[in-house]
Automatic annotation (TrEMBL), chains A, B:
The lineage of its organism: Bacteria, Pseudomonadati, Planctomycetota, Planctomycetia, Pirellulales. This is Purine catabolism protein PucG. It is an enzyme of class 2 (transferase). Substrate binds at R343. It comes from Anatilimnocola aggregata. InterPro entries: Aminotrans_V_dom, Aminotrans_V_PyrdxlP_BS, PyrdxlP-dep_Trfase, PyrdxlP-dep_Trfase_major, PyrdxlP-dep_Trfase_small, SP_NH2Trfase/AEP_transaminase.
Length: 388, 388
């Protein structure tokens, strides 16, 4: 039996990712496949690396895309830096910090967890006791997709390096949505995903390793446990030698290449400002109808808005009505936030005035059907005010 | 600096893969991204799994696509079945058997290598001494992409199971090009790639685990070393529970879905016959101009033709002229075959009469420029004869 023709419904992806793919990226995906050692493809890899360095704001030679999703990037950074028995500190304030603990333990790390309540961020003081034990690596999530928390990195980095450790940063949802400075902040290893603020489908994980991190990788006593993610071999394919490792995901690479062109055409600062503006409008709109954020004040990500589901409102029904009637996807809560939180994404190409206004209008309609009390006023009017 | 617009040259991919992507697959890649838990996407996954079972000829519930290339599939099958200290036998007669040894050792396996010369295949007798030591897993490559050798699986499988071991098969280049029977041949774990005979770009790895293999996975004493490839968790996402694991590579999944539709529309037997027919034509053409195969007679893959580079001919110049003048990519030799062998792929959509005839015509022109002696006659005429 042959499955039916593929006719995806038209969606507005306003959840925690994937976000809407930019039309130019969709077109890039459909361009003709070439060989993974074709001179054109090698040039494409060069261009991609060069643009990725600009977006990461780094000079790191070892900047490239892992052939897997963001979680593969997490695993790649961890397994290359960690050897069995190494001490690693992982900061956990949501699902993705928790995932990093699991990944690190599977790599043989002795993990010390530092925890904060979901939705909150870490200060250098929070890490001090764990840093006193002189870990090899400290892992932290810059944009916790499960809570919408925006972790400041610079001060943490200083404390981590004073303790002689390497800093590993999860930037899956961060990259392209908020300012991020790999070199200025002295980040040793970082990974992201294509399906958040880069407006590209999921499937690749941009990563970067500092020269100091690469020294650690190159002087390992044991082989990296993953052949597929071994960055010493990947460096030979993405570096000047171009030694075949695995077959690069050609068409997805086209997609990421075009996505990086788009963000550089707009300019990083303009892109961050756009994310901020649309977030402010959404926030004003939600506030007008009494919907509050779940994230620590002052540390709310513009691209991922985690808000309390109002009391008496049917979580699943709101989400399914938004999806079926308007084609709008928003995210459910994960883990500790399950059933308590909605996650509204304004990421990359999806961070647009039109999306903010449509979403608020649709949400008002759906909430009205559930006899929600609009005590304050119109969300759309409030959002519009911020654009004036 | 923004890298230039993406204009891939038009290529005819007649190397060891990636092969030419079918136009319908390219179109599928460009369809609108939906969420990884969207009801439509879950249906797409169901359809993909159902079609993949037909192509693998299996009833295995645990049949799905790993979010990485074929090498990630290799790693996924190995790391799920192997716990540190487990004995594994790996059959090595080319690059990919060698790669499996490396992957298995990194997973903590005690590996026994069984070797045959490059281009040759294994008999059950070749494995007997290694099987006597009662390994847990035996790994073998069905279609050795580095040598064009077509490994018979059925008799090997019988010997492996009589020894109480699990059979792990590399079908990266095999799937869709030659008959393959996961259930009838009692294969316990198998992986493939999208970029060979499935006419899809690289980026996903179809895999299947038998119920017996899944029992072994589910009764492990240690966690799978890779979080990303842990099939017990992947089973919860691809199975009925649909528990979020990592974000599925939506658009690549569309591509594989359409590729599977194409192969089932044609019919597997017709597809195999087409591969065989075009191989015979190519072979007759090459024979007519004195070019011989590098692979053991009787075990030549129709989809991957590894042939000796004629003496006095400049390997690199022939390949680069084919590429620049005709847009035809063929593969260089790898490892022991470097500089000695060309690898000519007739895979999936690329296995067409037109490609065979164009390639032979182009090759004749390029060889003539190198003063090659055409002792026997015209390759094109000989190829045409086989189509009559």
């Amino acid at each position: 039996m042959i499955a039916p023709e593929l006719h995806p419904p038209v969606r507005l992806l306003m959840g925690p990712g994937p976000s809407d793919t930019h039309p130019r990226v969709l077109q890039a995906l459909a361009k003709g496949t070439v060989g993974h050692l074709d001179p054109f493809y090698l040039e494409t890899m060069n261009g991609l690396q060069d643009m990725l360095r600009q977006v990461f704001r780094t000079q790191n030679p070892m900047t490239m895309a892992i052939s897997g999703t963001g979680s593969a990037g997490m695993e790649a950074t961890v397994v290359n830096l960690i050897e069995p028995g190494d001490a690693m500190v992982v900061c956990v304030n949501g699902v993705f910090g928790g995932r990093m603990v699991d990944v690190a333990e599977r790599a043989g790390a002795k993990v010390t967890k530092v925890e904060k309540p979901w939705g909150h961020v870490f200060t250098p003081e929070d890490l001090a006791p764990a840093l006193a034990s002189k870990p090899k690596v400290v892992g932290i999530v810059m944009a916790e997709t499960s809570t919408g928390a925006h972790q400041p990195i610079e001060a943490i980095s200083k404390a981590v390096h004073e303790a002689g450790a390497l800093l590993l940063v999860d930037a899956v949802t961060a990259l392209g949505g908020v300012p991020l400075e790999v070199d200025a902040w002295n980040i040793d290893a970082i990974y992201s995903g294509t399906q958040k603020c880069l407006s590209c489908p999921p499937g690749l994980s941009p990563v970067s390793f500092s020269p100091r991190a690469m020294e650690v990788v190159m002087s390992r006593k044991t082989k990296v446990q993953s052949w597929y993610l071994d960055v010493s071999m990947l460096a030979n394919y993405w570096g000047q030698n171009r030694v075949y490792h695995h077959t690069g995901p050609i068409n997805m690479t086209y997609g990421l290449y075009e996505a990086l062109r788009l963000i550089l055409e707009e300019g990083l600062e303009n892109c961050f400002a756009r994310h901020k503006k649309n977030h402010e409008a959404l926030r004003a709109g939600l506030a007008a109808i009494g919907i509050r954020y779940s994230t620590q004040e002052g540390h709310i990500l513009p691209q991922l808005n985690a808000v309390h589901i109002p009391e008496g409102v049917d979580d699943a029904k709101v989400r399914s009505t938004l999806l079926t009637r308007f084609g709008i996807e928003i995210g459910a809560g994960l883990g500790a936030f399950k059933g308590k939180v909605w996650r509204i994404g304004l990421m990359g190409y999806g961070s647009r005035q039109a999306n903010v206004l449509l979403f608020l209008s649709a949400l008002e309609q759906v909430l009205a059907e559930q006899d929600y009390l609009f005590q304050h006023g119109s969300s759309v009017a409030a959002a519009n005010d911020t654009y004036v």
